[in-house]
Amino acid sequence: MIFFRAMGNIDAIKKHEAALQRCLTVWIVTGLLFMLLPGTFLGAWNLISISDRHGAALLDPAWIQAHGHAQIFGWIGTFILGIGFYSLSKMRGLARFAVRRAWTCWVLWTAGVGLRWATNLWHWQWRWTLPLSAILEVAAFVLFFITVRRHRSEKNPAESGAPASQVWIGIVVVGTLGFLLSLLANFAMAVQGAYAGGGPDVPRGINERLLPLFTWAFPVVAIWGFSARWLPTFLGLSDPDARLLKLAVLVNTVAVACAIGAWWLPATALFATAATAASAGLHIFTRQQRPPKIIGVHPTFPLFVRIAYVWLLASAGISLSAAAWDKAGGLWGASRHALTVGFISAMVFAIGQRVLPAFCGMRVLFSTKLMFADLALLNLGCLLRVVSEIGAYEDYLPVLWPVLPVSAVIEMAAMTIFAANLLITFGQVPPHLRISTIQGPR
Ligand code: HEM
Description:
This protein is mainly alpha-helical.
């Protein structure tokens, strides 16, 4: 009797696990669609128009913001919510309601982000669709938060006395708060904009102050947290230095506060300090202690992770020079691009292709060569974009204007290959099911 009950429990757990994996796959595919269509294609279109007109002045700011929102919230936010539901529900013992809530949350979130993008693009009835989109996004986040808030990590006796190995949880929590604050700020701006009636775009000065919140306070911190969790294993690095990482998060928080107050020189100097402390705390540039775990990914994976952290530092350095010398938005744009494409996207490409095939049904990445191609193209496109944005926008080297569309096409190719590699992976039968199909039922 006990035996049958135990077997029943195992079956139920397997079913929940499969349901969670299906749900995560839908979240990830949704994120990829937001990344490609409203995100990358619109970004490339904007850049081609800017390059044609030799400046962004004539471009509708609502379109630029539609692109930024689709990338940060539609792609990165969707990935983080999906992975959050999956991993925290697993740790909490596969609570059944978590799967139902994950689906409800997906409906609210996708509707909110999709509506926001359409509103910015077509301006149709924007005075009510803009706040509605922001409400839907906040509602989705609240549902996520109340579902996972009582999360406690599994008690691992080996880890219980080692604060360094647990520091990642605290950092991810801070990143999640950054996510919440970003959504609340977005909601406040949507309501204010609808009330004032000026248009669906956030006024330029305010938008510039909010962008560091949307980037440094949310995806950057979340990536530091996941780096502390996974990089010691994946790259064979020594355990993170908890004190340095906490310092990085603290300094970064003060930097974001300074940026919101438009106190740019201190803000950017602090971003540079935080980025340096985070890289040092994660031992990114130190010698590996053990062989890296690169089964299933391209062997250059550890190199690309390190290059992403070089972009983080470069972005902080460029933003410091922007605070001092920017005249036409070129230095600010280049620093933002180094951060969003060079660091955030490259880290999602690298870690995503390492962990998502397993999370989404114990699959194996379709092609490690495509992984190398997307990471190499992403870095090439980013380098061309950052150099030519500074040279062309700031009028140091106007001959670089024609390079901008080339960089856009290269980055678009990188994003498309990344999406295709994951989508084909999800479409394949996982190896463990292939074996059981060949063996047939016992
Ligand atoms: C094909 C790749 C991409 C292209 C061609 C592109 C293009 C652009 C362009 C032209 C702008 C206008 C400002 C400027 O001139 O710098 C911009 C802004 C922005 N981009 Fe991208 N981008 C790309 C990828 C990304 C990615 C992957 C992210 C985030 C993960 C991102 C986030 C942003 C943000 C947050 C802004 C600022 C939006 C605002 O002003 O509110 N971009 N991008």
